[in-house]
Amino acid sequence: MAKLTKLEDIVSLCKRRGFIFQSSEIYGGLASCYDYGPLGVELKNNVKKAWWKSVVQMRDDVVGIDCSILMHPLVWKASGHADQFADLIAECKKCNTRTRIDHLKDKPNESAEEHTEHIALAAAAAGAQDLSRKVCPACGAVGNFTQPMPFNLMFETNMGANVDDSMTLFLRPETAQGIFANFRNVLDSTRVKIPFGIAQIGKSFRNEITTKAFIFRTREFEQAELEFFCAPGTDDQWFVHWKQQRFNWYLNLGIKKENLRFREHEKDELAHYAKGCVDVEYKFPFGSGDWQELEGIANRTDYDLRQHQRGMRTLNSWYENKGDLSKIKLKEEAEDYLKGPLSYFDDEKKSRFIPYVIEPSAGMDRSTLAFLVDAYDEEEVRGETRNLLRFSPAIAPIKAGVFPLVNRDGMPEIARKIFDDLKKYFNCFYDDKGAIGRRYRRQDEAGTPFCITVDGQTTQDNTVTIRQRDSMEQIRLATDQLKTYVREKLDL
RNA sequence: GCGGGUGUAGCUUAGUGGUAAAGCUCCAGCCUUCCAAGCUGGUAAUGUGGGUUCGAUUCCCAUCACCCGCUCCA
């Protein structure tokens, strides 16, 4: 990969080719928000389709769902997000460095806890007042901190146009909870049997304290998540299974092997409910060659379904407190929670249990960008630089360009007819402007894998040339075989 | 949120306290039978808001956005 060595190069490429624009750019932009342009939306849609095909369509044991972004507030009480999806940050008055207070330590030489889970806001605020002996990890100053500043990472909004009558809701910070909330519905309506999964692609929102780095961490982003429900005791094998499945998905779609790796989470880095977690990381080509997380695969145990059983028991308390989440406490788990409303009855073994959950959760925006930069290439052809995107045909925004070699002798008419026929089956682009070489190069830049050209011979024997993006080689093909030829290349 | 940097046409760059320049791209036309050819013409820019000034793209202030580093990162 040549020349694409800085984030700026990638941003520039994305804008130049119509993949990704700054949101609200004509108004000076809006931090952390980005729009997908004409090629970008095709690319991203194809990435999502490829995920859905691999995770849902090709499997007998996974079904799909599409949940609303707004959900009952108790969902977030039960999931823990309302109380715990938050950080307390204090700023060193001496050097202005901000540090999460749970990362602060008393003595300078203690090893810092690199990753700890988010903390319960209320409890931490009460217990965290005394920072007088804490040491700033940046400059070493002792006890020189501002008051801790709380950050809740969930977006709030209001439902109901009438102000007096409106209810505060949260924009979902993950799509997963919609799946857990529908576990019973899916079970009752689709004859699925454990082990099985429910998959969803959709937008999520997090008020990240810092964003930065283009679309790697944005406050509005799209996730593709699978919650795979299995019997306790089988969770480890399913964890391994999905780990492998998901890693291969990226490779099959063309990501170079040397740019992809797993990163296992350390025990102390795991969320409190997780038994295991591994990230799929991609080595982006800029800066120091940072490995960035594309996807996390976690063993969430039976935590989520058990929590929602507690949430369901809390409903009355919620009504009694007029929906004020801060005034209610999640009800304790029932003694016989294993037989609760979100449990599963195994007919063969005549046993009832709360399923364990394996969760592969992929960032669609990050993945799309990884596919884009991984496909980027420059090469020398006859002293000229050829820029191209070597997309897998499955995710290429345009599958075929259709050209008349020259604009006469009936060639445009034939090319038009071919274009009109093929566009019913896949994205095509018709171009009759300028020299043929220029048209090929334009498609190279968009990552179009095939170009079909009508020439003088076509009028005699109904064959055309079809040119390969990567090798620039051409073969002749009968026009009635074009559809089959291209479609075969689009399947994985 | 801190420190540093950047912001001129779609892209890459030039330049100046006094009419903002070029290459590529793009568009129109001519010409073209397979890889960014050539010719002619054309569209198009100083992020936003103030201030200083006769006059600001240039100097100053603010603001927005992006990049680098710190910080942070279910």
Report on this model:
This protein has 492 residues and is an alpha+beta fold. The chain has helices spanning 7-16, 38-57, 73-79, 81-84, 121-127, 176-181, 183-190, 235-252, 303-313, 315-320, 364-375, 411-422, 436-446, 458-461, 482-490; strands spanning 20-22, 34-36, 62-64, 86-91, 98-100, 149-152, 156-159, 167-170, 196-205, 220-230, 260-264, 276-283, 291-301, 344-346, 351-353, 356-363, 376-381, 384-389, 400-404, 428-430, 450-454, 463-468, 474-478. The strands form seven sheets. Strands 3-9-10-16-13-12-11 form a seven-stranded mixed beta sheet. Strands 20-19-21-22-23 form a five-stranded mixed beta sheet, with helices on both faces. Strands 5-4-6 form a three-stranded antiparallel beta sheet. The radius of gyration is 27 Å and the shape is globular. Mean pLDDT is 86; it is low at 108-117. It binds one RNA strand of 74 nucleotides through helix 1, strand 4, strand 5, strand 13 and strand 18.
What Rg do the Cα atoms give?
27 Å
For the biggest β-sheet, the strand order reads: 3-9-10-16-13-12-11
Strand content: 25-35%
Q: Give helix % range.
A: 25-40%
Total helical elements: 15
Q: Structural class of the secondary structure composition? A: alpha+beta
Mean pLDDT: 86
The CA-CA distance between the termini, in Å, is 24 Å
Uncertain residue ranges: 108-117
- Number of strand elements: 23
Overall form = globular
Largest sheet geometry: 7 strands, mixed
